Structure to design on (322 residues):
């Protein structure tokens, strides 16, 4: 199969609105999950950029990728775009630095982009279960993630991937940087984990082979995929589909993806993924309203977790036939 020079734009992917309750909740009830269809996805692929493994990047490049992803999520991801961090910065961050394998750095400014940068650094590219003073790279994420760089070797897009965890590891305690990121992210993460958990449980209950693969660490997961403005959107799909190929080559059997943007949904559906579970953003308020929020609460203008009348769609796909 040959990748096209000019990839086609992904087709529009419609998600249910909050009033379309027939499209909410569990959606997939067929006998088996579909298998990835790389041939169907070929017209949307790109021969323009080279996909590189993140494990081959140096420290500065990995941190630059974290900045690309945080900036993109702050501007484009529907929940992070709508929800604001607490107004009051954490006092524990004053005159404190964070030491990990990537360096010894102060927290910096109390902004949405910087909070997301530290979220990526603390929860994805390093391991939040590692004790203070011995925080190393998260080899699962670094080993499965992919990146596109420009001619100057600067990351301009990436997909942070991992093995879907079978059980949640405990984060280290008394880490003011971790606590700061969660003070902003907790309503968003709670929304995601709650509905992903229901989808995963349903898949495990209905598909014994998925359950076995999950318990054996053979289910891949795309945690965050994003680009800078330097990378045209029509070429970003190559990161996505290459992640599927990479998991398949490594012997993974399934992949789970949560789409909060319709672009992710379109990318999943072009590859043949099944819609498993949908949760609307605006069925109820999940954060404080701006004019009612305390100094230490995340908030939005209207109390909803997103300004977009859409939601979160969990997808699943087999990477090989049984």
């Amino acid at each position: 199969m040959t990748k096209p020079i000019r990839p086609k734009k992904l087709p529009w992917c419609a998600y249910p609105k909050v009033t379309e309750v027939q499209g909410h909740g569990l959606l997939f009830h067929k006998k088996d999950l579909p298998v990835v269809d790389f041939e169907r996805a070929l017209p949307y692929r790109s021969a323009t950029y080279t996909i590189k493994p993140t494990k081959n990047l140096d420290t500065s490049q990995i941190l630059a990728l974290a900045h690309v992803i945080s900036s993109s999520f702050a501007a484009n991801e529907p929940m992070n775009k709508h929800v604001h961090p607490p107004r009051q910065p954490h006092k524990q961050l004053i005159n404190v630095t964070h030491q990990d394998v990537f360096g010894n750095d102060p927290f910096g400014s109390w902004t949405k982009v910087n909070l997301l940068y530290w979220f990526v650094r603390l929860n994805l590219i390093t391991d939040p279960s590692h004790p203070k003073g011995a925080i190393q790279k998260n080899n699962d994420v670094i080993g499965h993630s992919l990146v596109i760089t420009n001619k100057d070797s600067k990351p301009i897009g990436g997909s942070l991937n991992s093995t879907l965890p079978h059980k949640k590891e405990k984060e280290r305690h008394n880490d003011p940087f971790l606590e700061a990121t969660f003070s902003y992210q907790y309503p968003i993460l709670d929304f995601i984990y709650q509905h992903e958990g229901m989808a995963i449980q349903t898949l495990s209950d209905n598909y014994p082979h998925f359950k076995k693969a999950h318990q054996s660490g053979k289910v891949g997961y795309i945690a965050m995929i994003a680009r800078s403005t330097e990378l045209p959107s029509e070429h970003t799909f190559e990161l996505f589909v290459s992640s599927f190929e990479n998991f398949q080559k490594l012997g993974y059997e399934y992949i789970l993806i949560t789409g909060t943007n319709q672009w992710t949904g379109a990318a999943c559906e072009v590859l043949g993924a099944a819609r498993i579970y949908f949760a609307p953003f605006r069925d109820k308020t999940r954060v404080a309203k701006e004019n009612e929020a305390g100094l230490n609460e995340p908030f939005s203008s209207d109390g909803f977790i997103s300004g977009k009348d859409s939601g979160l769609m969990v997808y699943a796909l087999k990477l090989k036939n049984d």
